Amino acid sequence: MKHLMSPLDxxxxxxxxxxxxxxxxxxxxxxxAHICEGKILATCFYxxxxxxxxxxxxxxxxxxxxxxGFSDAASSSAAKGESVSDTIRVISxxxxxxxxxxxxxxxxxxxxEKSQIPxxxxxxxxxQHPTQTLTDLLTIRSLKGRLGDFTIGLCGDLKFxxxxxxxxxxxxxxxxxxxxxxxPEELRVPDYITDMLRSKGISYSEVIRLEDVMPQLDxxxxxxxxxxxxxxxxxxxxxxxxxxxxxxxxxLAREDxxxxxxxxxxxxxxxxxxxxxxxxxxxxxxxxxxxxMALILTLLGLA
Length: 303
Ligand code: NCD
Prior knowledge:
Elements: H1 12-27, E1 40-45, H2 51-62, E2 66-70, H3 84-94, E3 97-102, H4 107-114, E4 119-124, H5 130-144, E5 150-155, H6 162-171, E6 177-182, H7 191-199, E7 204-207, H8 210-213, E8 219-222, H9 233-239, H10 247-250, E9 258-260, H11 281-299
Parallel strand pairs: 1-2, 1-3, 3-4, 5-6, 5-8, 6-7, 8-9
Helix pairs in contact: 1-5, 1-11, 2-11, 3-4, 5-6, 5-11
The structure holds N-carbamoyl-L-aspartate.
């Protein structure tokens, strides 16, 4: 049985198969509309979410399956003190596959060890968010036609942003990628990531001003300052509007650059940018459904 804890759980060949399947689902969704009839997905969300939970639910329903779950730890038995290990043992009796989001890093991994069904990490604290990474990679591959040979700027909260950490981990396996990390001093990418890049001889730079690097970018990955992971409100308020991508800044970018964002957006991209053809974040959300459909099929052995 296979779980998904990190994007590295799949080889790049397995990812290519997954993305081919996601593109086929995009082209011909009717072909897949009944494959999961009789199957149940459990979504166990101990932390807030809109996109990830609903895109999983939408994915399972579009495959003909059904969904059970909870969207708030307070309404689950966690509120009575039940451990994640016990919860997953019980969920294994009710469902065929489980997507779990948890504020504690590693909690979905603990669940996977005790689970009788595939467990998907739908975000664990500031650590990893593998299905967002699959979404990001599918978006890049579909819209750019390749994974590799590009300069990517990751901008915003690179310290707490789990989508950033997962994406960097996944991208280092492709050739000729240059990373530009754009953040305020306090929100720099963690040392374990820069250490990993140095040990692999992968090129990266850290800058503060977005405008300085904009013309070099093939991809700009914007992120929200992760309010919920700050220890004090004052620091959040000081940093939350550090970057605001507007049409004036976007005018410095290449014609074929893509702007990605895992969403939710707060202020970091002005709404005026949405109508620019380079704004790809809503298309990215759509790819999130296709890739989760492909993932469910793959982990259930139905692909
Ligand atoms: C992200 C997350 O939960 O880490 N959201 C998402 O799943 N698309 C990004 C964020 O919350 O900023």
